Amino acid sequence: MRLTRINLLFGIFISIQTLGQTSPDTLPFIQQDKNRLTYAPDNQLSQKLKKKLQNINLPGAQKINILHLGDSHLQAAFLSEEIRQALFLHYFPEDTLTEPGFIFPYTLANTNNPFYYQVDFTGQWDTNKNTDDSLKYKLGISGITVATNDTAASFSVKMQNKNYPFPVKYYFNRIKIFHSARPGISVKINGFYTQTEQNYSHIHFPEPCDSVNIEFTNPDTDKALEVYGLKLEYHRNKLAYHTIGVNGATAQSYLKCELLPSQLIDLNPDLVILSLGTNETYNKNFSALENKLILKDLIHQIKAIVPEVSVVLVSPGDHMKHESSNPNLKLYRQTLIQIKDELNTGFWDFYSVMGGDGAMLKWHQNNLTASDKIHFKRAGYQLQGQLFVKAFLEFFDDKKR
């Protein structure tokens, strides 16, 4: 029998606490009364998504895709994993298997990889990021490209299902690797030749697996083979949560991504969550008006590509700059509220929920943040994830406090 949503959510938070996390209810500086996901009352796209989520377990229900796009707060995946696990358990309490969705082999780019999968590789790989001043390669939705001129190169991805305590494990049987169009290349996945199209290769397996090895053979090394990321799906899955984060990224960074439109169409999100603003507000030349126009441009581009998508803006948390709270955060938060009203998006005000001006010091005193007082420790990101899920379910699932 399916558990009730309220009891299940309570059970999720209890299980989270047993893993050594801090409960938001034990921290007096958390502003629980402000923990709301808000939309305009007549936002039809949010109501459409609410109906799809509430019917997700009915026969013939459509798959729901969530895309969470951001910066370093997402790249390590502590925050996004908390959200993904809790949402999946809420909607599918009797299932213990889900798909990883879109991922990137960050290890090839010599940067920190999400903890829940391991990447190994052969060959020489070059890197270009959307935070770089100049672009050598095209960029996709991941915001990072790795490229090789080797005749043969490979990388493997292994889900760390045995090494972390979350109840839902990651398996997949549909694999798509996004790469540049190169005549004559061949791509093998787990020893089998793929079907290669212009900008990707793909294969389906009859049974799910938790690891993938991708081998590239390139007969012409005059031009590098570029890899933009991969999508790992399970054919039975009805809820996909794709996370993309790049250290140092801003909204402007994602506007550099030439291949974002085609890959966004492939992911086909019902909901896009934008967690940006930390790097914008830390810039010494910060301009609230300029950043408002840039973020609006990114949202317009997303909605032009996927017109039926619902968008949620997340305000960046309080952080320290020159020994005090960054004053630009209040200006940026106000900018997000203006955009929410002008473009009819959703808004989750993490800045206020975590305690507003000076809250970072209180989180730091409770051992929830990194020493830079900008980023969080794993427990801090997990706490943020709990708060977001609570607000998400209260809006989309009509769960009352």
Mean pLDDT: 92
The biggest beta sheet reads: 7 strands, antiparallel
What Rg do the Cα atoms give? 21 Å
Terminus-to-terminus distance: 24 Å
Label the structural class: alpha+beta
Oligomer: single chain
SS field, number of helical segments: 12
Helix coverage percent? 25-40%
Number of strands: 22
Contiguous runs where pLDDT drops below 50 for at least 5 residues: 1-20
> What percent strand?
25-35%
Shape field:
globular
Can you offer a commentary on this structure?
There is one protein chain. With 401 residues, this protein is an alpha+beta fold. Helix content is 31%, strand content 26%. The protein has twelve helices and 22 strands. The protein has helices spanning 5-18, 44-54, 72-75, 78-91, 251-255, 260-267, 278-282, 288-305, 328-343, 350-353, 359-365, 378-396, and strands at residues 37-38, 64-70, 97-98, 101-103, 117-122, 126-129, 144-148, 152-159, 169-170, 172-179, 186-189, 192-193, 195-196, 200-209, 211-217, 225-233, 239-245, 271-275, 310-314, 320-321, 324-325, 346-348. Strands 4, 6, 7, 10, 13, 14 and 16 form a seven-stranded antiparallel beta sheet that branches. The protein has a six-stranded mixed beta sheet with strand order 1-22-19-18-2-17, sandwiched between helices. The chain has a five-stranded antiparallel beta sheet with strand order 5-8-15-11-12, with no helix packed on it. The radius of gyration is 21 Å and the shape is globular. The two termini are 24 Å apart. The model is unreliable at 1-20 (pLDDT under 50).
